[in-house]
Amino acid sequence: MKIAALVSGGVDSSVSVPLLKEMGYDPHIFYIKIGMEDEPSFMDCPSEEDIEITGWIAKKYGCAFDIVDLQEEYWSSVVKYTIESVKQGLTPNPDVMCNLLIKFGAFNDRYGKDFDRIATGHYASVYETSEGSFLGTAKDRVKDQTYFLGQITPKQLAKTMFPIGHLPKKEVRRIAENMKLPSATRPDSQGICFLGKINYSDFIRKYVGEKPGEIIELETGRILGEHKGFWFHTIGQRRGLRLGGGPWFVVKKDTITNTIYVSNGYDPIAQYDDQINLENLHFLNLQHDYSQLDQIKFKIRHQPEFTLGKLIRDEKGIRIVSDNKISGIAPGQFAVVYDVEEKTCIGSGVIGQSIIN
Q1: CB 223 within 8 Å of CB 259
Q2: Can you list the domains of the chain with their CATH numbers?
Q3: Is the separation of the CB atoms in 345 and 337 below 8 Å?
Q4: Catalytic site residues?
Q5: How far apart are alpha carbons 146 and 1 in whole angstroms?
Q6: Is residue 2 classed as helix, strand or coil in its secondary structure?
Q7: Which among 322, 330, 338, 346 would be 20 to 30 A from 293, CA to CA?
Q8: Which pLDDT tens digit goes with each residue over 29-49?
Q9: Contact status, residue 56 vs residue 44, Cβ threshold 8 Å
Protein backbone atom coordinates (compact mmCIF):
# COMPACT_ATOMS: atom_id res chain seq x y z
CA MET A 1 0.00 0.00 0.00
CA LYS A 2 1.37 3.42 -0.97
CA ILE A 3 1.11 6.04 1.78
CA ALA A 4 1.43 9.81 1.46
CA ALA A 5 2.28 11.21 4.90
CA LEU A 6 1.56 14.90 5.49
CA VAL A 7 4.15 16.14 7.96
CA SER A 8 4.27 19.70 9.29
CA GLY A 9 7.27 19.53 11.60
CA GLY A 10 5.10 19.28 14.70
CA VAL A 11 5.38 16.37 17.11
CA ASP A 12 2.11 14.66 16.13
CA SER A 13 2.74 14.35 12.39
CA SER A 14 6.43 13.62 13.05
CA VAL A 15 5.62 10.59 15.21
CA SER A 16 3.23 9.28 12.57
CA VAL A 17 6.24 8.51 10.34
CA PRO A 18 8.04 5.95 12.58
CA LEU A 19 4.65 4.43 13.45
CA LEU A 20 3.94 3.92 9.75
CA LYS A 21 7.38 2.36 9.32
CA GLU A 22 6.66 -0.01 12.22
CA MET A 23 3.42 -1.00 10.46
CA GLY A 24 5.47 -2.06 7.43
CA TYR A 25 4.81 0.97 5.20
CA ASP A 26 7.30 3.16 3.39
CA PRO A 27 5.58 6.54 3.47
CA HIS A 28 6.34 9.32 1.02
CA ILE A 29 6.55 12.49 3.14
CA PHE A 30 4.99 15.72 1.91
CA TYR A 31 5.26 19.17 3.44
CA ILE A 32 2.45 21.50 2.32
CA LYS A 33 3.23 25.19 1.97
CA ILE A 34 0.13 27.29 2.57
CA GLY A 35 1.51 30.45 4.21
CA MET A 36 1.03 33.59 2.14
CA GLU A 37 4.64 34.21 1.14
CA ASP A 38 3.75 36.85 -1.42
CA GLU A 39 1.94 38.99 1.13
CA PRO A 40 4.55 41.41 2.53
CA SER A 41 2.64 41.88 5.78
CA PHE A 42 2.53 38.17 6.57
CA MET A 43 5.01 35.90 8.28
CA ASP A 44 5.32 32.68 6.29
CA CYS A 45 3.61 29.86 8.17
CA PRO A 46 5.75 27.12 6.55
CA SER A 47 8.90 28.28 8.36
CA GLU A 48 12.38 27.15 7.56
CA GLU A 49 12.48 25.30 10.88
CA ASP A 50 9.35 23.29 10.02
CA ILE A 51 10.81 22.24 6.66
CA GLU A 52 14.19 21.47 8.20
CA ILE A 53 12.64 19.18 10.82
CA THR A 54 10.44 17.44 8.25
CA GLY A 55 13.43 16.89 5.96
CA TRP A 56 15.45 15.53 8.89
CA ILE A 57 12.72 13.01 9.71
CA ALA A 58 12.49 11.92 6.07
CA LYS A 59 16.25 11.33 5.99
CA LYS A 60 16.27 9.50 9.35
CA TYR A 61 13.64 7.01 8.18
CA GLY A 62 14.76 6.78 4.56
CA CYS A 63 11.56 8.28 3.15
CA ALA A 64 11.04 10.18 -0.07
CA PHE A 65 10.36 13.84 0.70
CA ASP A 66 8.74 16.62 -1.30
CA ILE A 67 7.67 20.17 -0.52
CA VAL A 68 4.43 21.06 -2.31
CA ASP A 69 3.12 24.57 -2.81
CA LEU A 70 -0.64 24.96 -2.33
CA GLN A 71 -0.60 28.65 -1.41
CA GLU A 72 -2.73 29.68 -4.38
CA GLU A 73 -5.32 26.99 -3.68
CA TYR A 74 -5.39 27.88 0.01
CA TRP A 75 -5.95 31.56 -0.73
CA SER A 76 -8.68 30.96 -3.31
CA SER A 77 -10.59 28.56 -1.05
CA VAL A 78 -9.89 28.71 2.69
CA VAL A 79 -8.78 32.33 3.00
CA LYS A 80 -11.54 33.54 0.67
CA TYR A 81 -14.09 31.57 2.70
CA THR A 82 -12.79 33.17 5.90
CA ILE A 83 -13.01 36.71 4.54
CA GLU A 84 -16.46 36.25 3.00
CA SER A 85 -17.79 34.68 6.20
CA VAL A 86 -16.71 37.52 8.47
CA LYS A 87 -18.12 40.07 6.01
CA GLN A 88 -21.51 38.42 6.55
CA GLY A 89 -21.14 38.52 10.32
CA LEU A 90 -20.51 34.78 10.54
CA THR A 91 -17.90 32.86 12.52
CA PRO A 92 -15.70 30.87 10.13
CA ASN A 93 -13.53 27.86 10.95
CA PRO A 94 -10.56 27.80 8.54
CA ASP A 95 -9.15 24.61 10.11
CA VAL A 96 -12.30 22.64 9.20
CA MET A 97 -12.17 23.92 5.64
CA CYS A 98 -8.43 23.29 5.33
CA ASN A 99 -8.98 19.58 5.92
CA LEU A 100 -11.82 19.45 3.39
CA LEU A 101 -10.36 21.66 0.68
CA ILE A 102 -6.58 21.36 1.06
CA LYS A 103 -5.19 18.34 2.97
CA PHE A 104 -7.72 15.85 1.61
CA GLY A 105 -8.84 18.02 -1.31
CA ALA A 106 -6.32 19.99 -3.40
CA PHE A 107 -3.38 17.89 -2.21
CA ASN A 108 -5.07 14.66 -3.25
CA ASP A 109 -6.16 16.14 -6.57
CA ARG A 110 -2.64 17.29 -7.46
CA TYR A 111 -0.31 14.85 -5.71
CA GLY A 112 -2.23 12.09 -3.95
CA LYS A 113 -3.89 10.21 -6.79
CA ASP A 114 -1.06 7.66 -6.94
CA PHE A 115 -1.37 6.88 -3.23
CA ASP A 116 -3.76 4.50 -1.49
CA ARG A 117 -3.92 6.48 1.76
CA ILE A 118 -3.15 9.99 3.05
CA ALA A 119 -1.80 9.85 6.59
CA THR A 120 -1.88 12.84 8.93
CA GLY A 121 -1.12 13.55 12.58
CA HIS A 122 -4.75 14.08 13.58
CA TYR A 123 -6.05 12.64 16.83
CA ALA A 124 -8.83 10.60 15.23
CA SER A 125 -9.45 7.07 13.96
CA VAL A 126 -11.10 5.28 11.07
CA TYR A 127 -12.84 1.94 11.34
CA GLU A 128 -14.41 -0.23 8.68
CA THR A 129 -17.66 -2.18 8.60
CA SER A 130 -19.66 -3.80 5.83
CA GLU A 131 -21.10 -0.33 5.23
CA GLY A 132 -17.74 1.26 4.62
CA SER A 133 -15.58 3.77 6.50
CA PHE A 134 -16.58 5.51 9.71
CA LEU A 135 -14.76 8.35 11.48
CA GLY A 136 -14.01 7.34 15.06
CA THR A 137 -12.97 9.50 17.99
CA ALA A 138 -9.42 9.37 19.34
CA LYS A 139 -8.33 7.59 22.50
CA ASP A 140 -7.19 10.93 23.92
CA ARG A 141 -10.53 12.75 24.29
CA VAL A 142 -8.84 16.01 25.28
CA LYS A 143 -6.82 16.11 22.05
CA ASP A 144 -9.51 14.51 19.84
CA GLN A 145 -9.66 16.40 16.51
CA THR A 146 -12.70 14.83 14.87
CA TYR A 147 -14.43 18.21 15.20
CA PHE A 148 -12.09 19.53 12.49
CA LEU A 149 -12.79 16.53 10.24
CA GLY A 150 -16.58 16.67 10.30
CA GLN A 151 -16.88 18.22 6.83
CA ILE A 152 -14.65 15.91 4.80
CA THR A 153 -16.41 13.79 2.19
CA PRO A 154 -17.07 10.03 2.49
CA LYS A 155 -14.64 9.48 -0.39
CA GLN A 156 -11.95 11.50 1.39
CA LEU A 157 -12.59 9.63 4.65
CA ALA A 158 -12.06 6.27 2.95
CA LYS A 159 -8.55 7.41 2.00
CA THR A 160 -7.50 8.79 5.40
CA MET A 161 -5.10 7.24 7.87
CA PHE A 162 -4.47 8.49 11.41
CA PRO A 163 -1.44 6.61 12.87
CA ILE A 164 -1.52 8.33 16.30
CA GLY A 165 -5.28 8.20 16.89
CA HIS A 166 -4.99 5.29 19.32
CA LEU A 167 -2.40 7.04 21.50
CA PRO A 168 -2.67 9.61 24.29
CA LYS A 169 -0.69 12.80 23.75
CA LYS A 170 1.74 11.92 26.55
CA GLU A 171 2.63 8.70 24.75
CA VAL A 172 3.18 10.57 21.48
CA ARG A 173 5.60 12.91 23.28
CA ARG A 174 7.33 9.92 24.89
CA ILE A 175 7.80 8.20 21.53
CA ALA A 176 9.24 11.40 20.05
CA GLU A 177 11.68 11.75 22.97
CA ASN A 178 12.76 8.10 22.82
CA MET A 179 13.40 8.41 19.10
CA LYS A 180 15.17 11.72 19.63
CA LEU A 181 12.97 13.53 17.13
CA PRO A 182 13.71 17.28 16.98
CA SER A 183 9.99 17.99 17.33
CA ALA A 184 9.72 16.16 20.68
CA THR A 185 9.57 19.32 22.79
CA ARG A 186 7.97 21.67 20.28
CA PRO A 187 4.80 23.31 21.61
CA ASP A 188 1.49 22.55 19.91
CA SER A 189 0.61 25.00 17.17
CA GLN A 190 -2.01 27.61 18.01
CA GLY A 191 -4.15 29.87 15.87
CA ILE A 192 -4.77 29.87 12.13
CA CYS A 193 -1.82 28.60 10.14
CA PHE A 194 -1.92 30.93 7.16
CA LEU A 195 -1.65 33.96 9.43
CA GLY A 196 1.74 32.97 10.78
CA LYS A 197 2.47 35.47 13.53
CA ILE A 198 -0.05 38.03 12.29
CA ASN A 199 -2.88 38.88 14.68
CA TYR A 200 -6.31 37.71 13.48
CA SER A 201 -7.84 41.17 13.96
CA ASP A 202 -5.02 42.74 11.94
CA PHE A 203 -5.75 40.29 9.13
CA ILE A 204 -9.48 41.13 9.19
CA ARG A 205 -8.70 44.85 9.31
CA LYS A 206 -6.50 44.60 6.21
CA TYR A 207 -9.00 42.70 4.07
CA VAL A 208 -12.35 43.88 5.44
CA GLY A 209 -11.53 47.27 6.93
CA GLU A 210 -13.12 49.15 9.82
CA LYS A 211 -16.58 50.65 10.29
CA PRO A 212 -17.46 52.15 13.70
CA GLY A 213 -20.76 51.09 15.22
CA GLU A 214 -22.59 51.07 18.54
CA ILE A 215 -22.30 48.55 21.35
CA ILE A 216 -25.70 48.25 23.03
CA GLU A 217 -26.79 46.43 26.17
CA LEU A 218 -29.41 43.92 24.98
CA GLU A 219 -31.66 44.08 28.02
CA THR A 220 -31.83 47.88 28.41
CA GLY A 221 -31.02 49.34 24.99
CA ARG A 222 -28.36 51.49 26.64
CA ILE A 223 -25.44 52.53 24.39
CA LEU A 224 -22.24 51.42 26.12
CA GLY A 225 -19.56 52.25 23.61
CA GLU A 226 -18.29 51.87 20.08
CA HIS A 227 -16.75 49.02 18.10
CA LYS A 228 -14.76 49.08 14.85
CA GLY A 229 -16.94 46.70 12.82
CA PHE A 230 -19.25 43.79 13.65
CA TRP A 231 -16.89 41.47 11.77
CA PHE A 232 -14.32 41.74 14.55
CA HIS A 233 -16.71 40.10 17.02
CA THR A 234 -18.36 36.71 17.41
CA ILE A 235 -21.20 35.39 19.53
CA GLY A 236 -19.99 34.49 23.02
CA GLN A 237 -16.94 36.75 22.79
CA ARG A 238 -15.82 38.40 26.00
CA ARG A 239 -12.40 39.93 25.33
CA GLY A 240 -11.69 42.98 23.20
CA LEU A 241 -14.88 44.94 23.90
CA ARG A 242 -13.11 47.61 25.97
CA LEU A 243 -16.09 48.15 28.29
CA GLY A 244 -15.96 48.88 32.00
CA GLY A 245 -18.03 47.15 34.67
CA GLY A 246 -17.75 43.76 33.03
CA PRO A 247 -17.63 41.03 32.19
CA TRP A 248 -19.60 41.67 28.99
CA PHE A 249 -20.47 39.03 26.39
CA VAL A 250 -21.47 39.49 22.75
CA VAL A 251 -24.94 37.90 22.42
CA LYS A 252 -26.27 39.27 19.11
CA LYS A 253 -25.16 41.19 16.03
CA ASP A 254 -27.14 43.35 13.61
CA THR A 255 -25.31 43.29 10.28
CA ILE A 256 -27.59 45.93 8.72
CA THR A 257 -27.08 48.62 11.36
CA ASN A 258 -23.59 47.41 12.30
CA THR A 259 -24.62 47.03 15.95
CA ILE A 260 -23.19 44.72 18.60
CA TYR A 261 -25.49 43.65 21.45
CA VAL A 262 -23.95 42.59 24.75
CA SER A 263 -25.08 41.26 28.11
CA ASN A 264 -23.46 41.78 31.49
CA GLY A 265 -22.36 39.21 34.08
CA TYR A 266 -20.45 35.97 34.21
CA ASP A 267 -23.49 33.93 33.18
CA PRO A 268 -26.04 36.13 31.38
CA ILE A 269 -29.27 34.36 30.40
CA ALA A 270 -29.10 35.94 26.93
CA GLN A 271 -25.90 34.03 26.23
CA TYR A 272 -27.65 30.63 26.43
CA ASP A 273 -30.00 28.72 24.14
CA ASP A 274 -30.99 25.09 23.52
CA GLN A 275 -31.86 25.42 19.81
CA ILE A 276 -29.17 25.08 17.14
CA ASN A 277 -30.48 25.51 13.61
CA LEU A 278 -28.47 23.78 10.89
CA GLU A 279 -28.40 24.93 7.28
CA ASN A 280 -27.62 21.38 6.19
CA LEU A 281 -26.42 18.09 7.63
CA HIS A 282 -23.41 16.46 6.04
CA PHE A 283 -23.02 12.71 6.75
CA LEU A 284 -19.59 11.07 6.67
CA ASN A 285 -21.00 7.69 5.68
CA LEU A 286 -23.77 7.59 3.08
CA GLN A 287 -24.29 3.82 3.29
CA HIS A 288 -25.55 3.83 6.88
CA ASP A 289 -29.23 4.47 7.57
CA TYR A 290 -29.54 7.54 9.79
CA SER A 291 -33.25 8.09 9.12
CA GLN A 292 -34.18 7.12 12.68
CA LEU A 293 -31.33 9.04 14.27
CA ASP A 294 -32.68 11.00 17.21
CA GLN A 295 -30.60 10.98 20.39
CA ILE A 296 -27.10 12.32 19.76
CA LYS A 297 -24.05 13.93 21.31
CA PHE A 298 -22.61 17.05 19.67
CA LYS A 299 -20.06 19.85 19.81
CA ILE A 300 -20.35 23.41 18.55
CA ARG A 301 -16.64 24.10 18.98
CA HIS A 302 -13.42 22.14 19.43
CA GLN A 303 -13.49 21.02 23.06
CA PRO A 304 -13.16 17.75 25.02
CA GLU A 305 -16.77 17.72 26.28
CA PHE A 306 -19.73 16.33 24.37
CA THR A 307 -23.28 17.68 24.85
CA LEU A 308 -26.36 15.45 24.82
CA GLY A 309 -29.28 16.43 22.62
CA LYS A 310 -31.79 15.45 19.97
CA LEU A 311 -31.49 15.79 16.21
CA ILE A 312 -34.77 17.05 14.77
CA ARG A 313 -35.60 16.88 11.06
CA ASP A 314 -39.07 18.10 10.11
CA GLU A 315 -40.91 20.63 7.95
CA LYS A 316 -39.20 23.44 9.88
CA GLY A 317 -35.76 22.21 8.84
CA ILE A 318 -32.85 20.57 10.64
CA ARG A 319 -31.92 21.50 14.20
CA ILE A 320 -30.30 20.21 17.33
CA VAL A 321 -32.20 20.59 20.58
CA SER A 322 -29.74 20.42 23.46
CA ASP A 323 -30.76 18.73 26.70
CA ASN A 324 -29.27 21.71 28.51
CA LYS A 325 -28.94 25.29 27.34
CA ILE A 326 -25.46 26.12 26.07
CA SER A 327 -23.57 29.34 25.37
CA GLY A 328 -21.74 30.70 22.36
CA ILE A 329 -23.94 29.39 19.52
CA ALA A 330 -22.29 31.28 16.67
CA PRO A 331 -23.82 31.31 13.15
CA GLY A 332 -21.34 30.13 10.53
CA GLN A 333 -19.56 27.84 12.97
CA PHE A 334 -19.95 24.07 12.66
CA ALA A 335 -22.04 21.78 14.83
CA VAL A 336 -20.50 18.30 14.74
CA VAL A 337 -22.72 15.31 15.52
CA TYR A 338 -21.67 12.10 17.32
CA ASP A 339 -23.34 8.93 18.49
CA VAL A 340 -24.35 8.79 22.16
CA GLU A 341 -21.48 6.40 22.94
CA GLU A 342 -19.05 9.09 21.73
CA LYS A 343 -17.39 6.51 19.47
CA THR A 344 -18.32 7.80 16.03
CA CYS A 345 -18.38 11.21 14.39
CA ILE A 346 -21.53 11.02 12.28
CA GLY A 347 -21.19 14.30 10.42
CA SER A 348 -21.70 18.01 10.77
CA GLY A 349 -23.73 21.01 9.72
CA VAL A 350 -23.27 24.77 9.52
CA ILE A 351 -24.98 26.63 12.36
CA GLY A 352 -27.75 28.65 10.77
CA GLN A 353 -28.13 32.39 10.67
CA SER A 354 -29.62 33.76 13.87
CA ILE A 355 -28.06 37.21 13.49
CA ILE A 356 -30.61 40.02 13.43
CA ASN A 357 -31.08 41.26 9.87
Answers
A1: no
A2: 3-121+163-195 (3.40.50.620), 210-266 (2.30.30.280)
A3: yes
A4: 98, 193
A5: 25
A6: coil
A7: 330
A8: 999 998 765 555 454 444 788
A9: no
